[in-house]
Specification:
By secondary structure, the chain is α+β, with helices and mostly antiparallel strands. Helix content is 26%, strand content 27%. It is built from seven helices and eight strands. The two termini are 24 Å apart. The mean pLDDT is 93. InterPro entries: Pyridox_Oxase-rel, Split_barrel_FMN-bd. It holds the Pfam family Pyridox_ox_2. This is Flavin-nucleotide-binding protein.
Length: 270
């Protein structure tokens, strides 16, 4: 029997209104976009200034309570930062229980992740576009205080940088390293994604302009991140390990194929 595809329910916060044909609400798609994004942009409000704050952060979807859960299951987002940063301090002031349950509601946050797969160049500047995969999550952030869960999150995030990197480093982390690392767990309330893929497209009026067709190039410029050759540190004594080279090769191959597939109009998250 096929596995049921779970989706974030549409509500006033996450429903995509413009170009809603590009909208995706499937948990697996949204979580995969987040987990393959090297930098997440996290927005929150502080009581000390009138403007929202947006920070680039490292994070990863996961579940401490259900470590075998896959990307299609409900997950939390773990964010990594310095223990006394502005965001950590602001979140700390939100870690009091609500009136009904006594459980911490947490600090409201918005998390954005995006990948650009190509530049779509058309006959007119109005219809130029990107091929892209993007998602926005809304949720409530609380501090992770349990040391076992904190170590779980640190390992999860480390292995998101390079798979299997955690066990190839000096373990366990020192008490000072654990104490200076802040981990936030975001309980996701809702989310949605938009994915756009395809070739150039122009309206009939412009397509009937022979002079323009003869003088203007149209098409897609594929874009994809690549990793260069590993560069050893000044004190390195070992050969580049397989977990690094294999990841770099897979990263380059997968990203290139994603970009080319998007240019052909194949709409997918990975």
């Amino acid at each position: 029997m096929a596995r049921h595809t779970l989706e974030y329910p549409k509500d006033a916060t996450n429903t995509v209104k413009r170009y809603n044909a590009h909208a995706v609400y499937a948990l697996e798609t949204i979580h995969r976009i987040v987990n393959t994004c090297q930098i997440l942009h996290v927005s929150f409000n502080t009581p000390s200034q009138p403007f929202p704050v947006t920070l680039p952060m490292i994070g990863q979807m996961g579940s401490f309570d259900r470590p075998s859960a896959d990307l299609g299951d409900p997950l939390e987002l773990y964010l990594h930062g310095y223990v006394s940063s502005r965001m950590m301090n602001t979140c700390r002031s939100s870690d009091s229980g609500d009136a009904d349950s006594g459980e911490p509601q947490g600090m409201p946050v918005c998390i954005a992740a995006s990948h650009v797969d190509g530049l779509v160049l058309t006959l007119t500047s109005y219809s130029h576009n990107y091929n892209y995969r993007s998602t926005v999550l809304f949720g409530y952030a609380t501090h992770v205080t349990d040391e076992a869960e904190k170590l779980y999150a640190m390992e999860l995030i480390t292995n998101s940088v390079v798979p299997d990197r955690w066990r190839h480093t000096r373990l366990p982390p020192t008490k000072a390293e654990i104490q200076s690392t802040g981990i936030l767990k975001v309980r996701i309330a809702s989310g949605s994604a938009k994915i756009s893929a395809g070739q150039a497209s122009d309206d009939k009026t412009d397509m009937s302009n022979e002079a323009m067709l003869d003088s203007t190039w149209t098409g897609v410029l594929p874009i994809y991140h690549t990793m260069g050759d590993p560069m050893p540190s000044s004190y390195n004594r070992v050969d580049v390990p397989a977990h690094v080279t294999e990841f770099a090769n897979d990263f380059n191959t997968d990203n290139r194929q994603l970009s080319l597939d998007a240019a052909k109009g194949e709409r997918r998250a990975l």
